[in-house]
């Protein structure tokens, strides 16, 4: 099997507090993979370290067998919380076009081709009607979809998305999962940080359970078991499914640090 | 008489230099100031323009020349050093940017005063005029100064134009830019240097104290009229030039009206008007629309 | 009585202390740049009051200046409250406009008075002893009298409202729910800042006012975590900057206010570099130590993971560690040595093995 992403012995620390310890993870090409774990488990850290946005203390990341720096164009990233200035003078279409800048190179200007690609991406997340709105004049869920569209416009091979379903309604969630499935059908690889354990078996092929260390990773059917979930979440999981693997949901215990 | 004066602004040699110089400054600083305001560094310009003073004094002390170019080079180096120290303080300590700004502004300026008072005791005759950097002296602009403005402002504008897509992206979402592999740090230094350029150009005309207004006000005014960065940047340049023109004109009309403060007041008035009546965003505009809605609601 | 020399130092010390007290809260509340705005715009208050009263001795000048400082803060809030402008930009809009107005008014209508815009910025501390008033039979420099007044007032206000200030600074929401209006506290503090700036800038210039309000508290903030200690330290640092600045200025025959600001800056720079826990040097040392400790843990963990595996001979070879953990050879050597010294690993021929202690450490993680 070809691996889109291979993470080996990845260790990341903020100060002297390790957020990830010796994590190994392999993501086969053409799958939808969920990354699951409690708040503060290091999911965001895992994505950021994979993308070289934070420097790991140890370990290596390979994208299609090559170091990340050489494969940057193959990767797109949707952050968990964008810290952008929402009052910035820019329109939705402009923001999505920024997804094309990586391919654009240094001196070329975005032109008609970039515009078309951006509009197509907006169409996919059903935001085409908002193309000319200023970016701050959108609801939280709509802003989320714009950043998803920006990633789509990158036309990458591998997509990393940090909680794309956060704060979106059921209809939007359906729309997004539809987009993700289309990506998979096109042979792309999608890695999604996900919080709703109940929908994991329905939405994803593969799952990685993370809590500072990698607890388990692999096909959902094999890995998404009660024992593994307990190991990941401690006692804070109530399993709903009778067979112990069909579905699970976190109890509403607030996690520290959230 | 008022109209005659306006023509004189461009025909009279001295007045022409003042007018064109101020307009150049207004346009350049208006345009470059947009990035300071959008990148949440509005007051960096204030700190850097104060920090330029020791650079001017040191350049004079070291070279013994009152040549504009030498002094401005000193100003630029000191301002940039201040900005870099400021960023380092904020990054490496618990001091927040407001305190770091105020501290650097006051300390560098204080050091500048020390050097100036030292310079003033020197027997060199050519020291007079250093103080004009405090409040600027638009009236003293000569043609050479205009060329100097173009010579330093032009490359800064050209850099922005060449790297426009990258500059825009980094101003909006530096994290995303980093994930695309853009050298974000280098661009941040570039954008800061470009603001230094605007300050250096402005020191002669409006001086240390009022320079921050030339960076901030046009950008804020322009932002109210448009939701597009391209338009905003051009509008800010236009507003800056317009305010500078009216400032030069008004100060030519009256006695004892220093050009710098008049320009700043004109720019402030333009900004206040924009904040009030700009379509969609202006305070009065919004109130007016609310009233219209309320009336049409009652009418049904 | 006192020599002018001593009087200048006394004035400087008192003004320094008076400035740092509200300055501590400006820094903690992230409003330091308001000191910049206020210390410039009070000039407009003075000019307006002069134009109304037509006298430089009128108490209206003082009232007008203090009021203008507060009005500046209020204007900044109005502008940023419109949500069209961020607060820092609002400050940068308001104060140059007011200051320009003041400069123009002076040059047009008050050109003959001693309100010289340079001296507003720069101050002339050396002349302060010659501007004297006689009160209750005592002949004092005016700046000394007003400076002491500001210091005493600030000290009393701090003593009375310490609890409220502290609460409103660290938890404005809680303060509001407990019934202390944050607005009243905010404007109270700003009045005190404005009043102090007005008293001080005549003697020392507005730039030194900013330096004294911000630099000593910022320095103290790097040295301690406790508010009472921070206040005490700030006052001490402010006084030290004033005195050392004075002597440096005398020695080199340069601007006194400038030298004091410079000394305040040097003090801050020293704390920034060498503060015991928060200084750059201390941080770098801590960072190195942490990195090594962390690397030792990582080494034990790595050895544990490969213990007993078939590839143990390869994986646990020091040369392989360099590749696998991406360590520099010198760094790897240092870490292996440190782990050995601490008794976490031992060498068996070419290969590294965990000791019982090392295994426990790795399992603990
Ligand atoms: N910049 C940072 N500095 C210090 N510690 C951090 C930083 N970012 C994250 N951490 C810590 O690292 C740990 C992992 O954080 P991370 O953001 O990766 O969690 P997460 O799994 O994404 O959580 P969530 O579900 O809340 O998004 C947390 O304990 C967090 O407190
Ligand atoms: Mg996260």
What does this entry show, briefly?
By secondary structure, chain A is α/β, with parallel strands linked by helices. Chain A has helices at 43-50, 92-97, 101-104, 112-124, 140-153, 170-185, 200-203, 220-223, 226-233, and strands spanning 3-14, 17-28, 32-36, 58-63, 66-67, 75-78, 158-162, 189-193, 206-211, 213-219, 237-239, 248-250. Chain A is globular, with a radius of gyration of 18 Å.
Description:
The complex is a heterotrimer of chains A (258), B (300) and C (365). By secondary structure, chain A is of the alpha/beta class. Chain A has nine helices and twelve strands. In chain A, strand 7, helix 6 and strand 8 (189-193) form a beta-alpha-beta unit. Chain A is globular, with a radius of gyration of 18 Å. The termini of chain A are far apart. The model of chain A is unreliable at 240-258 (pLDDT under 50). By secondary structure, chain B is mainly α. Chain B has one domain (2-211): Orthogonal Bundle (ABC transporter involved in vitamin B12 uptake, BtuC), CATH 1.10.3470.10. Chain B contains 14 helices and no strands. In chain B, helix 1 (2-11) crosses helix 12 (229-253), helix 10 packs across helix 11 and helix 11 packs across helix 12. The longest helix of chain B is centred in the N-terminal third of the chain and has 26 residues, at 13-38. Chain C has helices at residues 4-28, 32-53, 59-81, 87-109, 117-122, 142-170, 172-177, 182-204, 206-223, 227-252, 256-274, 280-306, 312-315, 318-324, 329-341, 356-364; strands at 132-135, 138-141, 345-348, 351-354. Chain C has a two-stranded antiparallel ribbon with strand order 1-2. In chain C, strand 1 and strand 2 (138-141) form a beta hairpin. Chain C is elongated and about 95 Å long. Classes of the chains: A alpha/beta (258), B mainly alpha (300), C mainly alpha (365). Chains in contact: A-B, A-C, B-C. The site of adenosine-5'-triphosphate has 13 residues of chain A, from helix 1.
């Amino acid at each position: 099997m070809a691996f889109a992403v291979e993470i080996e012995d990845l260790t990341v620390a903020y100060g002297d507090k390790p957020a990830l310890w010796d994590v190994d993870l392999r993501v086969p090409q053409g799958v939808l993979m969920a990354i699951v774990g409690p708040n503060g488990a290091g999911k965001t850290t895992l994505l950021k370290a994979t993308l070289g946005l934070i420097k790991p203390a140890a370990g290596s990341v390979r994208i299609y067998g090559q170091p990340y720096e050489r494969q940057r164009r193959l990767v797109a990233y949707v952050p968990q919380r964008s810290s952008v200035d929402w009052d910035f003078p820019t329109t939705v279409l402009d923001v999505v076009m920024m997804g094309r800048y990586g391919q654009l190179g240094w001196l070329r200007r975005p032109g008609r081709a970039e515009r078309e690609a951006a509009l197509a991406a907006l169409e996919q997340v059903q935001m085409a009607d908002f193309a000319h709105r200023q970016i701050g004049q959108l609801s939280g869920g709509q802003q989320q979809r714009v950043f998803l569209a920006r990633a789509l416009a990158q036309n990458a091979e591998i997509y990393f998305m940090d909680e794309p379903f956060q704060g979106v309604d059921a209809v939007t969630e359906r729309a997004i999962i539809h987009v993700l499935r289309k990506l998979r059908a096109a042979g792309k690889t999608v890695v999604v940080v996900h919080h709703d354990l109940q929908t994991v078996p329905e939405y994803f092929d593969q799952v990685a359970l993370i809590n500072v260390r990698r607890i388990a990773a692999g096909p959902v059917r094999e890995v998404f078991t009660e024992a593994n979930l307990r190991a990941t979440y401690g006692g804070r999981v109530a399993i709903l499914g009778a067979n112990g693997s069909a579905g699970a949901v976190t109890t509403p215990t607030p996690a520290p640090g959230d | 008489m008022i109209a005659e004066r306006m023509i004189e602004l461009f025909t009279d040699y001295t007045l022409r230099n003042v007018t064109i110089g101020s307009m150049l400054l207004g346009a350049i600083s208006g345009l470059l100031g947009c990035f300071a305001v959008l990148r949440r560094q509005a007051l960096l310009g204030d700190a850097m323009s104060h920090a330029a003073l020791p650079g001017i004094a040191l350049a004079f002390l070291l070279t013994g020349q009152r040549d504009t170019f030498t002094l401005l080079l000193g100003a630029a180096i000191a301002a940039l050093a201040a900005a870099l120290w400021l960023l380092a303080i904020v990054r490496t300590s618990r001091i927040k940017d407001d305190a770091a700004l105020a501290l650097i502004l006051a300390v560098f300026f204080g050091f500048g005063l020390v050097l100036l008072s030292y310079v003033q005791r020197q027997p060199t005759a050519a020291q007079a005029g250093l103080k004009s950097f405090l409040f600027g002296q638009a009236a003293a602009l000569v043609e050479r100064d205009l060329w100097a403005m173009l010579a330093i402002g032009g490359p800064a504008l050209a850099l922005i134009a060449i790297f426009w897509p990258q500059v825009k992206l980094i101003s909006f979402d530096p994290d995303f830019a980093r994930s695309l592999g853009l050298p974000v740090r280098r661009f941040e230094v570039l954008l800061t240097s470009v603001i230094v350029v605007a300050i250096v150009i402005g020191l002669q005309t409006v001086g240390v104290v009022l320079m921050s207004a030339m960076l901030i006000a046009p950008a804020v005014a322009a932002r109210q009229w448009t939701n597009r960065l391209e338009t905003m940047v051009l509008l800010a340049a236009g507003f800056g030039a317009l305010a500078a023109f009216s400032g030069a004109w008004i100060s030519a009309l009256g006695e004892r009206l220093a050009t710098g403060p008049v320009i700043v007041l004109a720019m402030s008035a333009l900004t206040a008007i924009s904040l009030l009546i700009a379509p969609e965003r202006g305070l009065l505009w919004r109130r007016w629309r609310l009233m219209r809605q309320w009336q049409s609601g009652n009418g049904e | 009585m006192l020599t002018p020399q001593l009087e200048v130092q006394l004035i400087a010390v008192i003004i320094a202390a008076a400035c740092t007290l509200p300055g501590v809260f400006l820094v903690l509340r992230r409003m330091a740049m308001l000191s910049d705005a206020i210390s410039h715009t009070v000039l407009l208050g003075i000019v307006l009051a002069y134009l109304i009263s037509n006298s430089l001795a009128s108490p209206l000048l003082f009232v007008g200046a203090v009021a203008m400082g507060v009005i500046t803060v209020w204007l900044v809030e109005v502008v940023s409250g419109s949500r069209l402008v961020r607060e820092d930009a609002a400050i940068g809009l308001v104060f140059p406009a007011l200051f320009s107005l003041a400069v123009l008014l002076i040059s047009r209508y008050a050109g003959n008075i001693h309100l010289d815009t340079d001296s507003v910025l720069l101050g002339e501390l050396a002349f302060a002893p010659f501007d004297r008033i006689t009160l209750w039979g005592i002949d004092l420099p005016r700046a000394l009298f007003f400076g002491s007044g500001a210091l005493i007032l600030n000290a009393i206000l701090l003593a009375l409202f310490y609890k409220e200030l502290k609460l409103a600074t660290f938890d404005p929401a809680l303060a509001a729910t407990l019934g202390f209006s944050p607005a009243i506290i905010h404007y109270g503090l700003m009045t005190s800042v404005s009043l102090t700036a007005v008293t001080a800038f005549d003697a020392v210039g507005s730039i030194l006012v900013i330096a004294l309000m911000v630099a000593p508290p910022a320095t103290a903030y790097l040295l301690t975590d406790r508010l009472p200690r921070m206040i005490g330290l700030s006052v001490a640092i402010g006084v030290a900057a004033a005195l050392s600045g004075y002597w440096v200025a005398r020695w080199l025959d340069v601007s006194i206010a400038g030298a004091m600001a410079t000394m305040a800056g040097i003090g801050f720079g020293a704390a920034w570099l060498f503060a015991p826990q928060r200084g750059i040097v201390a941080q770098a040392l801590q960072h190195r130590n942490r990195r090594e400790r962390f690397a030792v843990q990582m080494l034990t963990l790595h050895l544990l993971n490969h213990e007993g595996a078939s590839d143990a001979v390869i994986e646990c070879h020091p040369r392989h560690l360099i590749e696998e953990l991406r360590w520099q050879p010198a760094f790897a050597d240092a870490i292996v040595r440190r782990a050995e010294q601490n008794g976490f690993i031992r060498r068996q021929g070419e290969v590294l093995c965990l000791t019982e202690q090392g295994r426990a450490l790795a399992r603990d993680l």
